[in-house]
Amino acid sequence: MNMNIMQVDYSTKIPNNVNLSDDRQVLKALEGWHPGYIDWWHDMGPEGFQQSLVYLRTAYSVDPRGWAKFDYVRMPDYRWGILLAPQEENRVIPFGAHYGEPAWQEVPGEYRALMRRLIVIQGDTEPASVEQQRHLGKTAPSLYDMRNLFQVNVEEGRHLWAMVYLLQKYFGRDGREEADELLRRRSGDADSPRMLGAFNEKTPDWLSFFMFTYFTDRDGKMQLHSLAQSGFDPLSRTCRFMLTEEAHHMFVGETGISRVVQRTCEAMRAAGIDDPADVEKVRALGVIDLPTIQKKLNLHYSLSLDLFGSEVSTNAANAFNSGIKGRYRETQIEDDHRLENDTYPVLKLVDGRIARVDEPALTALNMRLRDDYSQDCVKGMLRWNKVISSAGYDYKLTLPHVAFHRAIGEFADVKATPEGILIDEARWNARHHEWLPSEADGAFIASLMKPVTEVGQFASWISPPKVGIDNRPGDFEYVKIET
Ligand SMILES: [Fe+2]
Ligand SMILES: [Fe+2]
After folding, report:
1. Interatomic CA distance for residues 56 and 16, integer angstroms
2. Which of 44, 117, 132, 280 has most Cβ atoms within 10 angstroms of its Cβ?
3. Residue 149 CA to ligand 2 centre (angstroms)
């Protein structure tokens, strides 16, 4: 392996393993963008704690065997860098009309607009989540959780850098303009919102944060996997490295929810509560009842499904055909990787009923990626349900049906129960509080969001983690709060 590519140059203002010091024009563009980024971080990054010392990991290499080092860092001093996974020698385009041709090192002119759009959409999600989560530090249930939040935040910031590098290096003036726009849009803003729906929603509490990192970061994982297959090699290498960081974000979500579920079950056991659906009794214990956790899950899963776009999409077909965006684990799939003669079953609304219809595989690629996503979501669900059953409770968290609470695609215009039964508007209005968090549910969760900042202590509603970050002991001071 090429050690120059593996190691990161930290001698320049912008750490990188892309030889920026020899790339004057791009270096200049990035240095020009840098102050705006720092302004954005101060305006829209974590509220407070900017002078606190946070035990963060920073990538110093892109070697998967050991790429990060941990140390106390003030967030504004975090070294946001440009890191690409090592170049694979003789890599070929693994799908589409250019299947088997050498991967591109520059953007083919004919695909420029489509490629730029996909990079901008991905880039837009990165700062959006930081904006959505900026209030959460103040109510962190422990220093451990606070540190994880900030780790996710600085890495989403780095992912923005990753996309901005591609825009500035490969798309000239258009790319520079798009890079500026990425700092201008704001999550939830009425005039210039972020591009995708789920990234304009609020993340009002820590259960939402865990659901977001589990379900919405996982959409990110699927998108990054598809782009990591790209025939445009720099995009592929960028996404491959982002995925190593992304794994931690989903870990935070999965273990976070698991710890909430565990604490709830322990408290119910200790109080002798047999029925997990006895919401009032459970809430009186200062923990979050399982039915409310299910409602939050219903909300975040359905919002995340919308991120996959319409089930049947010619844009998706074009992106695949032209070699820009592949399928999840494309190279491990055994078929012709062109899909010109294949079909894929798509759930559709046919004569007022939900039916499976075979569609051309090329136009059904969003559906396929969404199916892969749903399968991936199930894994955590099984672990959470294990926690519940181990505590002796007969209660299962489940993923709602894909027709439930949708704003995009086949089911955007109908109402369905979490079981996938189509219902009319009146019935939906009467019952949706049973399936989605109500204002009262939100107020209850908010009432639990009291900060815990003593070393090694945790809020009443969440269990401590099984192991510390970087194998640190339970009484480790993950954040040295500046007062
Ligand atoms: Fe990200
Ligand atoms: Fe992420």
Report:
1. 18
2. 132
3. 11
Beta strands in 422-474 (DSSP E): 422-423
What does the pLDDT look like over 420-471, one tens digit per residue? 999 999 999 999 999 999 999 999 999 999 999 999 999 999 999 999 999 9
For ligand 1, the distance from its centroid to the CA atom of residue 112, given in whole angstroms, is 23
Question: Angle, to 10 degrees, between the axis of helix 439-448 and the axis of helix 290-306?
Answer: 110
How remote is the CA of residue 126 from the centroid of ligand 1, in Å?
A: 5
* pLDDT tens per residue, range 338-388: 999 999 999 999 999 999 999 999 999 999 999 999 999 999 999 999 999
How far, in Å, from the CA of 217 to the mean position of ligand 2?
5
> Cα(246) to centroid of ligand 1, in Å?
6
C-alpha of residue 219 to centroid of ligand 2, in Å = 9
Q: How far is the CA of 43 from the centre of ligand 2 (A)?
A: 20
Positions of E strands within 340-460: 343-350, 353-360, 415-416, 422-423
